[in-house]
Amino acid sequence: MNNSIYNRLLQKEAKLAVIGLGYVGLPIALEFARKIKVVGFDINQERVNLMKRSIDPSNELEASAFDGCDIEFTANINDMKDVEFFIVAVPTPIDDANLPNLKPLLGASATVGKVLKKGDYVVFESTVYPGCTEEDCIPVLEAESGLKFPQDFKVGYSPERINPGDKEHTLQNVIKVTSGCDSESSEEIAKTYELVVEAGVHRAASIKVAEAAKIIENTQRDVNIALINELSIIFNKLGINTFEVLEAAGTKWNFLKFSPGLVGGHCIGVDPYYLAQKAQEVGYHPEIILSGRRLNDDMGKYVAGEVVKLMMKHSLPVLGSNVLMLGVTFKENCPDIRNTRAIDVYSELKSYNVNLDVYDPWADTNEVRAEFGFDLMSRFKHQRAKLMATWNA
Ligand SMILES: NC(=O)c1ccc[n+]([C@@H]2O[C@H](COP(=O)([O-])OP(=O)(O)OC[C@H]3O[C@@H](n4cnc5c(N)ncnc54)[C@H](O)[C@@H]3O)[C@@H](O)[C@H]2O)c1
């Protein structure tokens, strides 16, 4: 049997590490840990402690997902000294000016660089603009390790398609794009991922192609939702029900089904800014991508404005009125409040001096208080409010 990294992983002679154990990193780490030896590394010791007790801090996986896994959770870099295959899945957020914030990614690259050895593999999964792996991450790996790319170590990129709260499209049953820095690494990386992705992998032609493929998946979605949001504003003015229009148009075979709404979270509302930044760097100002972003980012304000208009139309006093907002997480059936645009609805309504209560059984009260400075309505208070409403009706 040859001594390829894939075979060494399979024979449990080599270890794989996942750096960053969030929505993306933990499921992939556990899936690999059913087949090969895995180290799960995260800088957040509290999260590591929970995972050691078979608790997913992101609330996506049941305790049974940890059963039968050969995995060591750690926040200690020394535990990765004998690892030969690294997967990086740390966040790639934007800053207040909507510019890419590469701090976690470069931090994780520096961590890997400190334990990188000749012959090792590093695969990035974080969503980035085309060129980021080669232009931003590899130099950090080289600087920290003192090794030279590509002769001393191999690099690849494999974007993630996981969808929090979605039990239908899973890591195992959705084709995964993989790539490497040369034909040998491309094959080794593809075969390694095939161990866990039953649907198989698509071998992209290069790292940049794989990076670009991921970023356009989310950009396409963002722009399409922006179009439907714009249509809903027009139809509102025309007194036409947008959902009835979409239902009718949706009967055509090639009409794309998107719904109007708030575009939040750390993917769809963020990733297009990564692509826009790269486009501007090479001298092109993206018109459609950025106008889609602007439109979607303004929807919360628009929704709140429409609520106030409706109240006035029905002779309801706005100032001092009691308003209940249902939902604060960035989407349905998911506890994640990061970059939720529901907060825009909240802030805009608050600016009209209404008494606003927010109820969301998915969101964590402490997280909401820390992030947005208000307390969620308790389940008890919500039930009482519902009762009172029924009583008054
Ligand atoms: N969540 C999704 O639905 C999704 C889907 C596809 C792609 N992605 C992309 O995957 C990447 C990871 O996203 P996520 O949702 O899993 O993030 P997350 O916030 O859920 O988890 C990130 C984890 O990384 C850890 N971390 C941060 N900096 C670190 C460092 N320097 N070293 C080690 N650990 C570090 C954090 O403590 C956290 O546990 C992002 O680029 C994101 O855009 C996410």
How would you describe this structure to a colleague?
The chain contains 14 helices and 10 strands. With 393 residues, it is α/β, with parallel strands linked by helices. The protein is globular and about 75 Å long. The mean pLDDT is 95. Bound molecules: nicotinamide-adenine-dinucleotide. The site of nicotinamide-adenine-dinucleotide has 30 residues, from α4.
Structural class: alpha/beta
The level of helicity is 40-55%
Mean pLDDT: 95
Largest sheet: 6 strands, parallel
- Listing every helix as H and every strand as E from the N terminus to the C terminus, the arrangement reads HEHEHEEHEHEEHEHHHHHEHEHH
Contiguous low-pLDDT stretches (5 residues minimum) are none
Task: Write out the strand line-up for the largest beta sheet, numbering strands in chain order.
Answer: 3-2-1-4-5-6
- Work out the count of structural domains: 2
What is the CATH topology assignment of the largest domain? Rossmann fold
The CATH superfamily of the largest domain appears as NAD(P)-binding Rossmann-like Domain
CATH architecture of the largest domain: 3-Layer(aba) Sandwich
> What is the name of the CATH class of the largest domain?
Alpha Beta
